Hints:
Shape: globular
Region (Disordered): 150-170
Largest sheet: 5 strands, antiparallel
Distance between the termini: 56 Å
Domain YncI copper-binding: 21-167
Structural class: mainly beta
Number of strands: 12
CATH architecture: Sandwich
Helix content: 10-25%
CATH class: Mainly Beta
InterPro entries: YcnI-copper_dom (IPR012533), YcnI-like_sf (IPR038507)
Signal peptide: 1-20
Number of helices: 1
Strand content: over 45%
Pfam family, one: DUF1775
Amino acid sequence: MRLATAALAAGLLGPLAAAAHVTVDPTTAPAGSYQRVALRVPHGCNGAATTRIAVELPEGVYTAKPMPKPGWRLSIERRALPQAVRNPHGHEVEQEVARIAWEGGPLPEEQYEEFVLLLQLPNEPGGSLTLPVTQGCEGGKAEAWVERPAAGQHAHDLARPAPVIRLTPR
């Protein structure tokens, strides 16, 4: 009986473990809008606590502000734009945020956390915003949630899919 119960539990938990990856909330949002975006981190790296979360922002995201998290240090890396652009407030912008990282914690394996950003999403209705995330853990372990589905492939088929926000019309 115990063997059957263990086999049933393994069968039920196996798909859940495979689905446990860094995700984003919301998964859809109006193109061009300002959105509170939460990166959900459901676990560590094979038993090791999470100590770093870094998100890569693609070109064209001109407003990106991280929410501070007690016990974590924030760092923001910027990149120069090929030419200055005017932001929605009428100011010329010559740089954009390339990467935001939270370091510290730790976030134990058995807990989950959200890392929050305020983003102005690209004004591309019907498009998507992919946010590759690297998760660093104690002992030098890391998980890179950066995979993008190929044409005709679904993100659920990937081992380490990057979080994606689908951009809808306003």
